[in-house]
Design a protein that fits this description.
7 helices; Cadherin-6; cleavage on pair of basic residues
């Protein structure tokens, strides 16, 4: 059987001491290794005894010797010390970290081991016969456990911690817990047993030595006195004994604020100056109370004790200032000095500190109003003035009034902004502000006129004030009522007396206060129609008789007089046109065209005389005489009709075409896209030459050759003296219109076309021409050359045909 010899090591010795053989283990160690066949089996098993003894080795970490560190010795009872036994080591670190002497079984560590890297190694050992290389004993497992020494100092997770605790906290209030870790073995000795202590931060804080909890140690710590504290905490192993390792950390502790300080005014009296022109709601000053607290605990609210009519104070939430604002408009002339008290208090209170303290303060505010040059002020804004229409120009409309609010009461002048009175209907007296009309007003054109009146200080024109003036035009009964619409009225031929043919109504652009009331009437002597007023501003048109005939009268004009009830009474006459129509038995209109009267069988003497008169006018005198001589009275009428037809045919035959040619007219039409230059285009043709060929210049240059003359001859234009006949003509027409009693009573424009006598072409109009077409001689067109050849052929041939 193999005996294990372990080296007994003392912590105080730097090197291992002598080994001591372990006591011999009885044979039942095999049962501990699980070699028995079962539990409760009474049978005796014949097996060889197990030669290994199970145990573990201990090795001190961080060996500092120069030679290999001795671990222990393996020995088997099979070893007779004859050199035939060979010891073999396998497992974790075998051959590298741990080596074994094959002959003696001594185990050594080749390297310096650190328990914090690996605390235990598991290896296997076996015995082999050198001669046969057979295992003399089966391998068994054993452990090498690294024994810890205090070689690691405690370490905190952070180099610096941050924590906070409310100010004024009680003693023992927990702030924060900081802990350190020691990598040494906590199950062996005191290498990892830590003790905490405070190196810096007393007497304000303390630390629990076992768990590292930091607590307050001083009562009444005030943030407003000191806010931040630096506390140094130490953790030491070996239970804090001398020789132990230690580590430190810093804890930054901040006292958080609580509302333990009330707001206070540094100065309990403030003086503020405000100009009287400050707008309502405008700020005139700021005040501030001091509160050493911060954040929510320093929020304040300002108010005026008892309130005030002229001023108000609001809190600026950003700066925690009280802003004084104007509540009503200030007036230096009315009151110049104001005084009131202001209160400030915290918005949020802490119930722990409200006892014995008043978290509010007071201050007195004195406001002085300064005078400024103010613009004029109107007595009213706006003005509403009423005026009747048709008021004559220059009539009084109303008056506006403004004054200088300053103590000097400077004079003011008035004017109308003409951008609001483009038609210049009104005028204003610059001194007293009286508004008058420049033109008559018509309510039917515009019922309201909105103008702006400007008041300006005479001494300082920059000080101006505008006020709207609304002028309402009151109605005057100056318009007569008339038909509300255009009526299409008819009466049936078979109508009976008293039948309704039309209901009429009227409108009036005037608006009387009591409403419209119209009266309808027609001439009582009207034999055909009558009217019935319905008393609701409408009237019915009835037939007075029956038996209307289109042959006798196809249309009737019925004058209807419409009067109103306002003062002065206005009336007008509207004409109702009544057509006579053919209707069916139900009164539905079928046709309203007048019937054509048939001719009578014979002609009366008067009819014959009328026909002969027409013939005499149409025919020449010799033709009329021939009719009277050759034909008897009974046949003259028939022949007269024949003569009329013959004359009409002859007159139609005499209308010759403009172009006398057998060719198609379309072949003679030439289209040009050129636009002439008007009367000043003298290069195209001379209109005077067309009218007076005898004045044609013989040296007229052709356009198809280069002219020999540098400056062609031009006819001089009529001078201004030659235009006198035009002025005489216009003056004469003006006198005729002024003396014409039938001319309209209003201004009108008359246009006349008169060229005057200065034109060589004279008048182109045929209205005042005494010559007829037959009086013209067109032979001169043949001498104008090829451009006028076609024109000459047309008119010369026409002249020859007329003579033939």
């Amino acid at each position: 059987m193999i005996a294990h010899q372990l080296l007994l090591l003392l912590l105080t010795l730097p090197s291992p001491g002598p080994t001591a053989a372990l006591p011999f283990m009885p044979g039942n160690i095999g049962d501990m290794l699980g070699l028995s066949d079962g539990v409760g089996d009474s049978r005796v098993l014949h097996r060889s005894k197990r030669g290994w003894m199970w145990n573990q080795f201990f090795l001190m970490e961080e060996y500092t010797g120069n030679d290999h560190q001795y671990v222990g010795k393996l020995h088997s009872n099979m070893d007779k010390d004859d050199g035939n036994v060979k010891y073999v080591l396998t497992g974790e670190g075998a051959g590298s970290l741990f080596i074994i002497d094959e002959k003696s079984g001594d185990i050594h560590a080749t390297k310096r081991l650190d328990r914090e890297e690996k605390a235990m190694y598991t290896l296997h050992a076996k015995v082999i016969d050198r001669r046969t290389n057979r295992e003399m004993e089966a391998d068994t497992e054993f452990n090498i456990k690294i024994h810890d020494i205090n070689d690691n100092e405690p370490k905190f997770a952070k180099e610096i911690y941050f924590a906070s605790v409310p100010e004024m906290s009680e003693v023992g209030t927990s702030v924060v817990t900081v802990t350190a870790n020691d990598a040494d073995d906590q199950t062996y000795g005191n290498s990892a047993r830590l003790v905490y202590s405070i190196l810096q931060g007393q007497p304000y804080f303390s630390v629990d030595s076992e768990n590292g909890t930091i607590k307050t140690a001083l009562p009444g710590m005030d943030r407003e006195v000191k806010e931040n504290y630096q506390v140094v905490i130490q953790a030491k192993d070996m239970a804090g004994q001398m020789g132990g390792l230690s580590g430190t950390t810093t804890v930054s502790i901040t006292l958080s604020d609580v509302n333990d300080s009330p707001p206070r005014f540094a100065n309990h009296s403030f003086r503020v100056t405000a100009v009287e022109s400050t707008e309502v709601g405008g700020a005139i000053g700021r005040i501030k109370a001091d509160d050493p607290d911060i954040g929510r605990n320093a929020e304040m609210d300002y108010s005026i004790v008892g309130g005030h009519d002229m001023f108000n104070i609001i809190t600026d939430q950003t700066t925690q200032e009280g802003v004084l604002v104007v509540r009503k408009a200030l007036d230096y002339e009315d009151k110049r000095d104001y005084e009131f008290r202001v209160e400030v208090r915290n918005t949020y209170l802490d119930a722990r500190f409200v006892h014995g303290l008043q978290f509010k303060d007071y201050a007195t505010i004195r406001v002085t109003v300064e005078d400024v040059d103010e613009p004029p002020v109107f007595t009213r804004n706006p003005y509403v003035i009423e005026v009747h229409e048709d008021t004559a120009a220059g009539s009084f409309v109303g008056v506006v009034s403004a004054r200088d609010p300053d103590a000097e009461n400077k004079p003011v002048k008035y004017s109308i902004d003409r951008h609001t009175d483009l038609e210049r209907l009104f005028n204003i007296d610059s001194v007293n502000g009286s508004i008058t009309t420049l033109k008559a007003l018509d309510r039917e054109m515009s019922r309201w006129h909105n103008i702006s009146v400007v008041a300006t200080e005479i001494n300082n024109p920059r000080q101006t004030t505008r006020v709207p003036v609304f002028i309402k035009v009151l109605d005057v009964n100056d318009n007569a009522p008339e038909f509300a619409m255009s009526y299409d009225t008819f009466v049936c031929e078979n109508v009976k007396a008293g039948q309704l043919i039309q209901t009429i109504s009227a409108v009036d652009t005037d608006e009387p206060l009591v409403g419209h009331k119209f009266v309808f009437s027609i001439t009582p002597a009207n034999p055909n129609f009558t009217i019935v007023d319905r008393e609701d501003n409408t009237a019915n048109i009835l037939t007075r008789r029956g038996g209307f005939r289109r042959r006798e009268m196809s249309m009737y004009f019925l004058p209807v007089v419409i009067s109103d009830n306002d003062y002065p009474i206005q009336s007008s006459t509207s004409t109702l046109i009544v057509r006579v129509c053919a209707c069916d038995s139900r009164g539905n209109m079928q046709t309203c065209n007048p019937e054509v009267l048939p001719f009578s069988d014979g002609l009366t003497t008067g009819a014959l005389v009328a026909i002969l008169l027409c013939v005499v006018i149409l025919l020449s005198e010799y033709m009329a005489a021939l009719i009277l001589v050759l034909f008897p009275t009974s046949n003259r009428s028939l022949f007269s009709l024949i003569v009329v037809l013959f004359a009409a045919l002859r007159r139609q035959r005499k209308k010759e075409p403009l172009i006398i040619s057998k060719e198609d007219v379309r072949d003679n039409v030439v289209s040009y896209n050129d636009e002439g230059g008007g009367e000043e285009d003298t290069q195209a043709f001379d209109i005077g030459t067309l009218r007076h060929p005898e004045v044609m210049d013989g040296n007229k240059m052709r356009r198809d050759i280069i002219p020999e003359m540098l400056f062609p001859y031009r006819r001089s234009s009529p001078t201004k003296d030659h235009n006198g006949d035009v002025r005489d003509f216009i003056n004469g027409r003006l006198q005729d219109n002024d003396s014409d009693p039938t001319a309209p009573p209003y201004d009108s424009l008359a246009t006349y076309a008169y060229e005057g006598s200065g034109s060589l072409a004279e008048s182109l109009s045929s209205l005042e021409s005494g010559a007829t077409e037959g009086d013209q001689d067109y032979d001169y067109l043949t001498s104008w050359g090829p451009p006028f050849k076609k024109l000459a052929e047309m008119y010369v041939a026409k002249s020859l045909d007329r003579e033939t």
